[in-house]
Amino acid sequence: MSDTTTTAGAVATTERQGLLARLRQGTTYDVAIVGGGATGLGVALDAALRGFSVVLVESHDFAKGTSSRATKLVHGGVRYLAQGNIALVREALRERTTLLNNAPHLAQPLAFVMPSYKWWETPFYGAGLTAYDLLAGKAALGPTRFLSRSRAQALLPNARADGLCGGVQYWDGQFNDARLALALARSAADRGALLVNYCRADDLISEAGKVVGLRCTDVESGQALELRARCVINAAGVWVDDLRQKDGDANRGDGRHPTRPMVAPSQGVHMVVDREFLAGDNALMVPKTADGRVLFAVPWLGKVILGTTDTPRSDLAREPEPFDEEVAFILSEAARYLHKAPTRADVRSVWVGLRPLVKPQDDDGASTKGLSREHTVLVSRSGLVTVTGGKWTTYRAMAEDVLQTCFDKALLPARAGGVTRHFKLAGAAGQTPASATSISLAPGPHSYGDDQALVQSLPGAEHWLAPGLSEAMVRFAARFEYARTVEDMLARRSRILFLDARQAMALGPQVAQILREETGRDPGLAAFEDLAQKYLLDFSPSR
C-alpha cells in the first residue's frame, strides 16, 4: 500500500512508513497540532479546509483519552440551562444540528424520558425542557411532551412503577464518539493534512523567544523527529499543561515560577449493562441525583450505558479506574429508577474519562461540578496556542475559535471561516440525516456510511468474528483508519471493549492475527488482555 492523499470519492491509506516518511521531509507547516482528540482533530480539519498545511501528532491513539469516553450524547446541555448559561446552550444546540447533518452515519436523534416520582416534577422540569425546545428553534429534533403515568410506563417499560406520576419526553442526539474522531482524522487527511498517531510531542522548539516547532518521538521505533511550523497548537485535552510547562521563560514571566495549571480534571465513570435493564428506544434521564449531577441510562449499540459521575481527580492517568464509591453511587441511583436494579455482576464493561475543566485562578480543587464546561483558548508570549475545555458537541465551533485566535494574534494569515459548517465527514457524503421517526439503535454496518462497499470488498467480509465485527472490518481499520494495535481495533474502531470486556478479551487473539498480517508488527495482544481486565469490575482495585 502507498501513502496518499485523495480527491473526492477516494479513500486515503494510512500506511505507517509512508506517514513517517512525510514527517521526515523537513517541511515547515503552517500549523502543527499536538493532540488527536476531538479538539485537535477538529482544528486539523478546519485548517486543512482553509488551505493551510497541517501536521498533527498524537502520543497514543486518536481519541484514546477523553474523546472516546463520553456518554455518547450530542446535546445542548440541559444542565447548563438550569445553571443559566443560555449562550452555551444556544451554541451547543446549533452545533448539535450541524453534527447530526455532517455525520448522519455516526449520529442520530434520541428520545429521552424524565420520569416523575413527585407531583411537581412534570410541570417543573417540563417547563425547562420546553424552554430548551424554544432555544433550539428550527433546530429542535422533536417536540417536548408531558406524559401521563401510563404513557411514561409505555415509553420506559423498565422504569420503577411504584410512585410513578408521569414524566416528560424530550429529544437530544447520540453518536459514536471514537468513530467520529476517526471520521475527522480521515477527512483532514483526505484534504492533505498529515496525521500520525503514536508520535509523541516531547518538547517545543523555540527560536528568539518564539515557538517554531516540536521535538517528537515515533513511539513504535523510538526515532526522534523534528517538526517545524509557523503556528503550534496545544490541543492535548486534560494533558495540555504538560506542554505548557515546557514553554520556557516566554510563558513564565520571570523565569522562576512554573506555569500555573489551567486544567482541573474531573472523572466521569460509565458502566454498561444489557438491554434487559432498559428495553425500548428511549433513554432515561434523572435531572438531579443525590450529588446534584444528571444521571443517564442510555441505549447504545445493543447495550445500556449508566452514568456518569463528576469526581475531582489530581492525577492524569491514561487509563483511570473507577473509585468504589462512584460504582456504588451509579448502581444505587439506577436502583431508584429501574424496576430491576443492576448489580456489579451485571456490568459488562466500565470505563472512565477525565474531563478537562478550565480551572479558575482561585480554585482550591475541592469540587468540579461548578467549573466551566466552556472551552478556553490561551496564547503565550512565545506564541504557543493552547485550547482546552469544552465538549464533543461543540468541537467544530471550538476549532473555529482556535483559528480565529491565531488570526487575531497574527500567527496565521486570516482566511474565511465557516468551511466546516456544511462539510460532510468521511463516509457521510451519500447519507441522509435521521429524523425522530427513522432512527435505529441497533449495532451494524451503518457506521461506515459510504465506505461500506469498500469494507465489503476486502478479504474476510463474510467471516464474522462476532456480531458486528468481521475480518474485513479489521483489515479496513489497519489500512484506512490508522489502527496499529488490538486495543485500537476493539476499543475505538469497534467499540466491543466498551460494550463487553470479556467478549473483547475472547476476540483478542483473532484480531491480533489479522493485524499482524496487515501491519507486519506485534499488535500488542498481551497488553490488551491486561488492559481489558481493568474494564471489568471484578478486576478493578478497591479505593
Q: Count every beta strand, where a strand is a DSSP E run of 2 or more residues.
A: 20
Q: Low-confidence parts, pLDDT < 50 over ≥5 residues?
A: 1-9, 249-256, 361-372
Percent of residues in helices comes to 25-40%
How far the N terminus sits from the C terminus, by CA atoms, comes to 48 Å
Q: Please state the overall shape, judged from the principal axes of the Cα atoms.
A: globular
Q: How much is the average pLDDT?
A: 90
Describe the structure.
The relative contact order is 0.15. This protein has helices at residues 16-23, 38-49, 78-82, 86-102, 121-136, 149-155, 177-190, 240-244, 249-252, 324-337, 395-408, 452-457, 471-480, 486-493, 496-499, 501-519, 525-533, and strands spanning 28-34, 54-57, 73-74, 107-116, 145-147, 166-175, 194-196, 199-207, 210-218, 224-234, 263-274, 282-286, 295-300, 303-307, 311-312, 349-358, 375-379, 385-389, 464-466, 469-470. Helices cover 32% and strands 23% of the residues. The chain folds into three domains: 25-66 and 179-260 and 372-408, 3-Layer(bba) Sandwich (FAD/NAD(P)-binding domain); 110-173 and 263-358, 2-Layer Sandwich (D-Amino Acid Oxidase, Chain A, domain 2); 445-539, no CATH class. The protein is built from 17 helices and 20 strands. The strands form three sheets. Strands 3, 4, 5, 6, 11, 12, 13, 14, 15 and 16 form a ten-stranded mixed sheet that branches. With 543 residues, it is of the alpha+beta class.
